[in-house]
Amino acid sequence: MDELRTKYLDQIGKVADEAALEDLRLAALGKKGEISLKMRELGQMAPDVRQGAGAALNRLKDEIDAALRAKKSALGDAALDARLKDEWLDVTLPGRPRRQGTIHPVSQVTEEVTAIFADMGFAVAEGPQIESDWFNFDALNIAPEHPARQEHDTFFMARAEGDARPPHVLRTHTSPVQIRAMQGQGAPIRVIAPGRVYRMDMDQTHTPMFHQVEGLAIDRDISMANLKWTLEEFCRAFFEVPSVELRFRASHFPFTEPSAEVDIRCSWAGGVLKIGEGDSWLEILGSGMVHPKVLAAAGVDPAQWQGFAFGMGIDRIAMLKYGIPDLRAFFESDLRWLRHYGFAALDQPSLAAGLSR
Ligand code: PHE
Questions:
Q1: 287 lines ligand 1 (CB under 6 A)
Q2: Around 329, how many Cα atoms within 13 Å sit in the side-chain half-sphere?
């Protein structure tokens, strides 16, 4: 027994990792371990010898077991110490400013618009930028000979020679997403669809590619009153002013009836644009009650469902809100402009934390 004690205590002392320690434990105390075998031999001893030997063996077993446990916890502590030393991190060091890029005002404003409408229960819908003639025009009640097709200054995609089908177009507005969303989800539906649109036009306030956000709300009893409230609520939140005044001007779009263009009250006093006060008006969007033919084209029964739609220029409201004078600069990728008008990457717009800080 003394030999066994010396042997195992000695080996336990020298072991360097937990796996080797476990091997030792099995060799001593495992089912076929040396000490376990000795325990089994007790049965063959004479009763008077057995008593003394049994007690001594038990003591030896406890002693080795204790040594194994102590070593195990020491090895664990050492491993943790090594890890802590290895993974040491000075949390008091200042953060490294890694501001290489900024968020483009169009992205920022798209996020702001999305946050506001999400709060009103609108989901985001999407559609392709290369759109079929049917989605961009016909389904929206713009027949082939309709003058609106000319007004849209459409970019047409090329067709293979001899292919007589109408060419696809770069979508001229986000309104085709109305059709796609209604086809996909049916009614009731409440979506916005932000995205790129294209028209052949270029001056200080027009670029061949720009951004719109479409809005669509269809239910059993949605009216112009709901449209007006929704847009007022949006403008108050977006321009971050306590009150805004909107002016609905009768207008015409083939896909809405009645239709209205919406202006916002503003002032240019001192060359600075202020929203919500003054005697000037700025047009910000087109809107109306979705035409029954449009509902029908999208597979929604106009006898049961009705609602409003609007289309707003994202670049335009970005210019208004952030005082950016020239639209063309949006798409020139001039680093000085981007640094000046761009937003910090971590300033996520949210209604709770503020849209723009
Ligand atoms: N699609 C129209 C445009 O681009 C805007 C609009 C959308 C008008 C929805 C009414 C309803 O000018």
A1: yes
A2: 17
Nearest in space to 311 (alpha carbons), one of 140, 131, 120: 140
User: What's the gap in Å between 192 CA and the centre of ligand 1?
Assistant: 13
Which residues lie across from 195 on neighbouring strands? Answer: 212
* Paired residues of 189 in beta bridges: 218
The pick from 142, 153, 175, 211 for probing ligand 1's pocket by mutation, whose C-beta has the most ligand atoms within 8 angstroms, reads 175
Split the chain (357 residues) into runs of 10 and give each run's mean pLDDT.
Answer: 90 91 92 89 86 89 93 91 88 79 94 97 98 96 83 87 92 98 98 97 88 98 97 94 92 96 90 85 95 98 98 94 88 92 81 70
Domain 104-344 is found in CATH 3.40.50.920: no
> Does the C-beta of 195 come closer than 6 Å to ligand 1?
no
- From the CB of 137, is ligand 1 less than 6 Å away? no
**In the chain, where the domains are located:** 2-86, 104-344
pLDDT of 64 reads: 93
